[in-house]
Design a protein that fits this description.
By secondary structure, the protein is α/β, with parallel strands linked by helices. The chain has 2 domains: 168 residues, Rossmann fold (3-Layer(aba) Sandwich), CATH 3.40.50.1260; 198 residues, Phosphoglycerate kinase, N-terminal domain (Rossmann fold, 3-Layer(aba) Sandwich), CATH 3.40.50. The chain is 36% helix and 17% strand. It contains 14 helices and 17 strands. The strands form 4 sheets. A 6-stranded parallel β-sheet has the order 3-4-2-1-5-6, sandwiched between helices. The protein has a 6-stranded parallel β-sheet with strand order 10-8-7-15-16-17, sandwiched between helices. Strand 3, helix 3 and strand 4 form a beta-alpha-beta unit. Helix 8 packs across helix 9. The chain is elongated and about 70 Å long. The structure holds adenosine monophosphate (AMP). Adenosine monophosphate binds next to strand 14. Adenosine monophosphate (AMP) binds next to strand 14.
Length: 394
């Protein structure tokens, strides 16, 4: 089954989207990527003669809080859709049903922030049933929350025993990830960077069984350098993770996985954009200094490995790319991903910071796929079953 198999003509389709977009101080949408990525599904449903009821969360409100209202998103949604959108000031009860039960084919409604009700995150079944009253059919197009067992992302599915489907975005995400994980052209390279060492070790533990090449950069790398006996000065490390890092390196060696760690680093005397900086050997970082980027030698070695790989997965920057002085590694790898794509490789990028880096390098449309899910993507790569995906099969 696919979205195109659903009989939608004249039906109200309740769609879980991810409109968790950043707002500026005037409550204007700062980055509309997530809204744009939901448009294919919405337009498909409207073209097929359905009416569309959209539901989402926004931010992390504690109860009802006007600054997290989804009404801030209505204007941008109307602009992108090219039609008016009705807004329901609550996502359940009469306030919602008054709007959703009076929708005509071709019309669109947006429900108020799901997380104004604590039952959403609790996965409350009664609340999920109330949400379900807003639609005849259910479509899940929110990959960014597919790893959560919330009322609108997973529990609600049981109220639509037959009439439910993934949206085009979520299906595209599943297709892209399974392409990388189940039938990758080799060499398959995973590039993992960023700062969340402990949470990303689980992914490395799973990936080491599947990849031909493993590249570790960013703050992550220093725990591995420490594990190998190097001196990392004041670099970011999670010492209690050293045994797990060693296990990963041992497993990689046993499996013949090529591991890429930075041999040189750009080091800084403070964590700031204006810090004094110099290049040094990654395993000889003096006290008082910290590695904030992979060094030039590592960057060109990493780029060469990227260019010669056929399937590449990237999550997490190679350094503190938000500071220009420490952005070379991340941008060099981003450019190499573009080149690998030009050479016929398949490149999949996920996680907010990697996407921001690809956007800043103006390469977003020159790689194969940008995932909208950071956490969801990582859990998928860890080999976990995502509740939002599993619920659709039940
Ligand atoms: P994550 O959320 O784990 O993907 O981490 C992303 C963050 O890691 C970015 O904000 C980077 O600035 C930060 N980061 C990357 N490299 C380093 C490093 N060497 N030291 C400290 N933070 C880093």
């Amino acid at each position: 089954m696919a979205l195109s198999d659903l009989n939608i003509k004249g039906k109200r389709v309740l769609v879980r989207v991810d409109f968790n977009v950043p707002l500026d101080d005037n409550f204007e949408v700062q980055d509309d990527t997530r809204i744009r990525r939901a448009l294919p599904t919405i337009n498909h449903l409207l073209k097929g003669g359905a009416s569309v009821v959209l539901m989402s969360h926004l931010g992390r409100p504690k109860g009802v809080s006007p600054e997290f209202s989804l009404k801030h998103v209505v204007g941008k949604l109307e602009e992108l859709l090219g039609q008016s959108v009705k807004f329901a000031a609550d996502c359940v009860g009469d306030v919602a049903l008054d709007v959703t039960h009076n929708l005509k084919p071709g019309e669109v409604a947006l429900l108020e922030n799901l997380r104004f009700h604590k039952e959403e995150k609790e996965g409350d079944e009664f609340f999920a049933g109330q949400l379900a009253e807003n639609g005849d059919l259910y479509v899940n197009d929110a990959f960014g929350t597919a790893h959560r067992s919330h009322a609108s992302t997973a529990v609600i599915a049981k109220f639509f025993p037959v009439d439910k489907e993934f949206g085009l975005l979520l299906q595209g995400e599943i297709d892209a990830l399974s392409k990388v994980m189940s039938e990758p052209a080799s060499p398959l390279l995973a590039i993992i960077g960023g700062a969340k060492v402990s949470s990303k070790l689980a992914i490395l533990e799973n990936l080491v069984d599947k990849v031909d090449r493993l590249m570790i950069g960013g703050g992550m790398a220093y725990t591995f350098v420490l594990a190998q006996g190097g001196q990392v000065g004041n670099s970011l490390v999670e010492e209690d993770m050293v045994p797990r890092a060693l296990d990963i390196l041992k497993k990689a060696e046993a499996k013949g996985v090529e591991v890429y760690l930075p041999n040189d680093s750009v080091i800084a005397d403070t964590f700031s954009a204006e810090a004094n900086s110099q290049n040094c050997n990654t395993s000889e970082i003096p006290k008082g200094w910290m590695g904030l980027d992979i060094g030039p030698d590592s960057a060109s070695r990493f780029a060469e490995a990227v260019r010669t790989s056929k399937t590449i997965l990237w999550n997490g920057p190679m350094g503190v790319f938000e500071f220009e002085k420490f952005s070379n590694g991340t941008f060099t790898v981003a450019m190499a991903l573009k080149e690998a794509t030009d050479l016929g490789g398949y490149t999949l990028i996920g996680g907010g910071d990697s996407i921001a880096a690809i956007n800043a390098a103006k390469l977003a449309d020159q790689v194969s796929y940008l995932s909208t899910g950071g956490g969801a993507m990582l859990e998928y790569l860890e080999g976990k079953v995502l509740p939002g995906i599993a619920a659709m099969a039940e």
